[in-house]
Structures are given as C-alpha cells and as structure tokens.
Amino acid sequence: MSSSLPSKENNLFKRILKCYEHKQYRAGLKFAKQILSNAKLSEHGETLAMKGLLHNCVGQKTEAYQLVRRGLKNDLKSHVCWHVYGLLQRSDRKYIEAIRAYQNALKSDPDNVQILRDLSLLQLTMRDLSGYCKTRSHLFALRPTNRINWMGYIVALQLEGRYTQALAMLQQFRKLQFVETDYELSEILLYQSQLLEESRTPPRDILKFLHSHSLLILDKVSLDEISARLSIQNESYDEAVDLYNSLIERNPDNSLYYYELCAALRVITVDDQLSVFNDKQDIYPRADLPRRLPLDIVEDLDLFRDLAKLYMKERLRKGVPALFLNLRSLYINIDKVRCIEEILLDFYRNLCKFHRFEMIDDQMEPPTSVLWTMYYLSQHFDHRGQSDLAIEFINKALEHTPTLIELLMCKSVILSRCGDPQGSVGCLEEAQCLDTADRHINCECSLALLRLGAVDRASSMVSKFTREGSTIENYIREMQCSWYESKEALCEKQQGNLGLCLKACHEVDHYFQEFVEDQFDFHSYCVRRLCIRPYVDFLRETDRLKSHQSYRVVAETAVSVYLLIHR
Predict the structure, then answer these.
(1) What is the C-alpha separation between 9 and 67, in angstroms, rounded?
(2) pLDDT, tens digit, 9 for 90 and up, residues 187-210
(3) How many Å apart are CA 193 and CA 199, to the nearest integer?
(4) Taking the CB of residue 41, how many other CB atoms lie within 10 A of it?
(5) Torsion angle of the four alpha carbons 154, 156, 157, 159, in this order, in degrees rounded to the nearest 10
(6) b/e sequence 375-386, b meaning 16+ C-beta within 10 Å
(7) What pTM was computed for the model?
C-alpha cells in the first residue's frame, strides 16, 4: 500500500507526530482512529505503525506489537514503519533487533537525520564502534554546520583508535569557531591534550601545546596535574617539582601528589623521602598525610616506633574513630604490627595508672584518651584473630562509656567474627536505638539481620527509613539498594528459598541494566555541552560496570542456584 495520504488525512498524520513528540498520546490515538476509520485507509501502514507506537507509550504492548507488525506488513518499504518498529524494540531493550530495524529504515531513506541519530545511540550503547563511526560520519556529511555532529564524529574516531583523524577534525573544529564560551574552549583544549597523550605524542610537544594555551584553560587543577605528569615523562623535573608543590598547596591530603613529588625530586632513599615529608609537615601542620605516609616507607623499627607514637598520640587524644582504618595498610608487615601493639599496650597501662601516654609527657590526658585507646586495641586484636582480647578491651570500653555508638558497632563486628550472629545483631539494635536517625547504623543492622537469616526483621528495620506511603519493596527498588538485595539473595539461598533468591538476584541485574540504559541520557547531553573528557571516561567506566563486586556476588549466586535447579 502506498504511504501517500489525501490532504486532510495527511494533516491528521502530522498532528499524530506532534502528539507523539509532546507526549499527548491519547489525543494522537484519536487522530489515528479518524484516519483509519476511512475504509480506503483502514490498512494504511504508517498510521497503523504510529497507532501501535502510541499504544506502547500508554502501556498496551500487545496491541502495540500487533498494530506495528500489521503496518509493517502493509508497507515494507516505509522508513516510518521500520523506524517505529525499531523504537518499539528499543523500548523493550532488544537493541540488536532495533539496530536492524533502523538499518532497514535507512534503505528507504538513507539521509534521514533522526533515524541516523537513533541508530548511532544504539550502536554506541552496544559498542559497535565501527558502525557508530560510519553513522557519525554520515551525519557529519549531512549536517557539517552542526557542532554536535562534529564532536560526535571526533569522539567516534577516538573510541575507534583513529587519533590522527580525530586531532585533525578537532583542529578544524576550533578554527571554525563553534565554541561559544570560555569554559567550552577550556574543555576542548584539555580534550585535545588527552587525544595527544592517547596518540603517543611526545610529552615535549604536548607540554608546548599546554603552555601556549595555559591562559585559555580555566581548569587549573587538571592543567597542573597533566603538565606535572608530562614534565616527569619529559625529564623536566624542576618544572614538575614546582607544579606538584602548587598542587599540594591546593590539596595537602592527596597522597598521589606526594609520591609524584618524590619522583620529580628523584629521591630514592628513605631518608630523602622522610626529609620531603618533614618539610611538608612544617608547611602544613594540620594535614594528615605528611605524618601518615612516613609510616609506610620507614623500615627501621626504632624510627617507626617514634613516628607511630607521635601520629597515634595526637589522634587518640582527639578521638579519631577512623585511626585503625588509617593504619590498617601497615598490618601486612608483622614487625610493624608488633610494634604498634607494644606502643598501644604501653599507652593503655600508662593512661590507666598515670593519665599520660608516656611518663615523659608533661600534660595529663583527657579521660577519653583511654577510651579511644581501648577502642583501637579491640579492633587491633580482632584483626589479628585474637578474639578473647578484642572482646575484653571492647567490654572495658563499654564500661567506660556505654552509650558510644562506635563501640557497639565494633563489638558487633567482633561477635560476628566469633560466630555469634545473635549477639552481633543485639549490639547493632542497641546502637540503632541510641541514634534512630542514623541511616548507616540502620543499614548495618539490616545486614546483620540478613546474615542471621531474619529476612522479615531486616525488612522491618529498613522500612524505618522508607518514604511515607511507600512499601519496603518499592523503596529498595527505587533506591537501587544492591547491597541489601545481594545479601537477601544469599540469605534466601541458605534457607532453601531458591525462587526468592533468584528474584533478588534479578533485581540487582535489573539495576545494572538500568545503569547501562542511563547512557542514553548522556550521549547527546555531554556532546552538546562539550563535556567530552568526563564523557569518554564515563563510557570506558561503563564497560567495566559488571566487574563490580555487588554484581559478581549476585551473578555467582544466581549461577549456583540455576545449577542446583538443573541437577
């Protein structure tokens, strides 16, 4: 059947398209009914296809597929029918079928810009980089004055590894003055430096490019980080030292800056590195890293003991709950672990008897110092597997201050590792009662209940933070709580509820699929706003999405359950 319509019906068809664009689906269905009520046009393919698309938008999928297939059958050569069929497949996440439908649509109308755009988005989502590059090239040829087509093609060339062409296109893009604001120009220049790095351009040439445009680049932190890294590669060490000193002044708690500064200074020995860190301690007395990093590199135990004492004294005096987490990376060295244990036990004995960390100290310590020392010792012994001592010290700490939430949470962890999940839950429930507004405690208590196998109690605990009028299932789904669903899956599997286990696993899989779906929101926006560097990083991170621990846990759980069912 011909896709042509009489003048009156053609105007109605245009109104259907406008209704679809403005999401006025019910009104569009009325116009489609008016066209199809004409006996001569009752099988008009494009109208049937559009009516099916509108039915899909209002949730009537069965009718939608019937109408679209009927329309496609009546007009196989119509690009509208194939395009609509592709949109229908895309809405059901059948991206391969959608791509085929778009390609069939382009056979009838090879220069249709909208179909080409939709095709390019799907090709990029499916990482068909070769096809994406061809489609972007076609769009660029059709609309060479549109800057989105320029940047889309440049990104396509970069992703395919054709850096020389991408750089040539980007140079031409800058010459044509498509950039509208200073910020956009700054981002384009930094993006060009990224392309130069990925194309293995010598560091000297990239540095020359950055220096010549330094006044135009507004993101000074990124500029300094890139320039410092390239300066080391170019063996321009003095320049790198100045840049890393500037970066440390801006952010003295970034560990990478300190290590790179040592590399730029070409210091190798421990003494030289300590000298660097000591200088920074004098300049930034409130920064933590200049005092913490020496503990990683010092090998002499006497020197380590002196540095560790100074570091821990100050933090135990202030009451820093994260002190053990800050030092936990040292626990791979057994000699340093023994040294830390000796220091803390000496501190504990002196604080109990003399209210001082050491006898040589002039000032008396506040009562909380012994509390945080016991807190650290309980974590220390728990980490070393000495549960009896860990419980002893955490109980003493609770006798000292029974309402400190951190102590109850620490005791919960210790009891859980000792094989007492009921006691662990009891501690967390007590902590939750002390601070009912703390969401973190609520989540930890829910996880402990799941480990105990009490799914209903865990669900009740989580429900304390649900929005009023929302069920717990909807809340967890809406907030994409994969941490809860993954633990619930393991709990249901242990109890033999394989169906509920698989349901929880598939919910987490659905969350990750939604993360992939979210790419569609960024493909056009980031290119339009010229946020190209974070956009490319986002695409590369999405490729590694399913290596996340949460996904691996539920995937392994689901596979094991399916194998059990099969057997």
Answers:
(1) 19
(2) 999 999 999 999 999 999 999 999
(3) 10
(4) 17
(5) 120
(6) bbbbbbbbeeee
(7) 0.88
